[in-house]
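Form P-L/3: holo structure prediction, ligand flavin-adenine dinucleotide.
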Amino acid sequence: MTSSTRTVPGSLDLRDRSRAFADLDRETFDVVVIGGGITGAGIARDAALRGLRVALVEARDIASGTSSRSSKMIHGGLRYLAQGDVGLVREAASERQVLRRIAPHLTRLSPFVMPGSRSMIAKVRAGLVAFERLGKVPRDERHRTLDATELLELEPTLAADRFSSGVVYPEFLTNDARLTVANIRSAVASGATVLTHAAATRITVGGNGRADGVEVAGTLPGEQLTARARTRLVVNAAGPWVDAVRALEAPDEPARLALTKGIHVVVPHRRLPVRDTVITLGPDKRPVFAVAAGPVTYLGTTDTFYTEPDEWPRIDASDVQYLFDAMARTFNGPPISPDDVVSLWSGVRPLIAPSEGSDAAPSELSRRDETWVGPAGVVSVAGGKLTAYRTMAERIVDDLVSDLGTGSLRCRTADVPLIGGDTDVGGLTEDLGGSLGEDAARLVQLWGSDASSIADDGGDVAAEVRFAVCHEGALRLEDVWIRRTARSWFTLEPVGTDLDVAAATMAGLLGWTPERQAAEVAACHTIHHDARRCLDELPEGAPAPVA
Ligand code: FAD
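OUTPUT (holo model):
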């Protein structure tokens, strides 16, 4: 059986672009969502599951903004405790249990090990005890303190002489882009219309002064297609671009966002062989981490103000050096150096700007979400975290339902599994392991139950690409490389032969000319090499650790 003959729920095939634009033009929707990151995807799924007529338009690809650039953690919310935000702690702690239920493939439990001095660990413990009580953390998932010997048993790469104790507690790791794709496909399964690579260019306003439509224009190379989606309500979920989309409604309104940049550095796992996740402190005492992810370990993250909502925020040598310094203080062996770096990624957090005159540091800005209703009734949403996207969507859709006057329609997103989530992850991995060996675990972690379709189709790179194009709306090589198959940052050879195989498969499926195929490959190389450029400014070989 191939992926095209098995029934695929929530299948999204956007290759017939004229038809996709016509679909948007034809209907009048209850809600049009602008932005296909986790915020927009979560809102679209919730609204569609409640029976509303929903359209979602995305300027580039699903999760192409911040929602593929996060640290990929489903936080319990410990850090919000330090900010005194008890509500966020409760929400984050309970949300990770919900996500584990509806998307077991996208919630990988990982022990987080934090080494430190006795006094520091005593402080962290006090926070953890409060967090576990507030978050109703099950007994078998509570923290454990460690002496120096236990610490090294768990993470042998730690610099033994520098830490007298530690603590270990469980958190979840996810794949942010795949979580977003799963939400989008779940929305499609409930009847939503989704169009990607189509930017909202204008919000139209009816005689009553209310927004009544969104005009979109295709953004694929050489594309001239446009459409107008008529609607009763518009939601602006454009992440770092929320202010730009607000300007389509009201050009003179003041900006509401503050952006902060975070980067991640990927090194071979053998170079920093952490067993799970190690949390340590950066030179400025912010928490930073090293996460084991198959063949690589990723290090993150930074938090610095950034002015422009760039698609690929610039990575500076100082960002990388900051992480190198933190790792050099924490681990044994020769410090990580530019020669070790496989790849890097950066993203910006769309946070709510603090009040004028505030001197808060970037990491002190609240991670709470906020919504604003503009003069034509457009609902804009920003802030928040990947972790709590579902409850944020629930609150917003509750308001939309009340605006539409449709009576109370119950939110079902905590009960219905996400696409791919209706599976026993361990059992499926074992089943597919017979034919796919070690690749089975990767496929199941990324696709959940859909891994069976890909395995039936051969389970190789080309099969992944066919599934991504025919059922997950991928239209550019970058969509597959970064966001559907996670090959850009989680393999040792990100721009190797797999990329060429993927390009050739896509060319066949999308009718690309040889020139277009070459341009798509070149675009991925550019993303990869641009991110690495800052490494040239760092000293070669091992940098001296900062004392
Ligand atoms: P985005 O994902 O940016 O989505 C907005 C979308 O709108 C984009 O895809 C964009 O292309 C589209 N768009 C823009 N303009 C238009 C237009 N005119 N028409 C149509 N579409 C448009 N959270 C956690 O819970 N855990 C973490 O570990 C974590 N780590 C993080 C680390 C870093 C470095 C960063 C930057 C963030 C992290 N976050 C984390 C926060 C989390 O990633 C964000 O809160 C979340 O991804 C924001 O999603 P969004 O949908 O609001 O924005």
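COMMENT: The mean pLDDT is 94.
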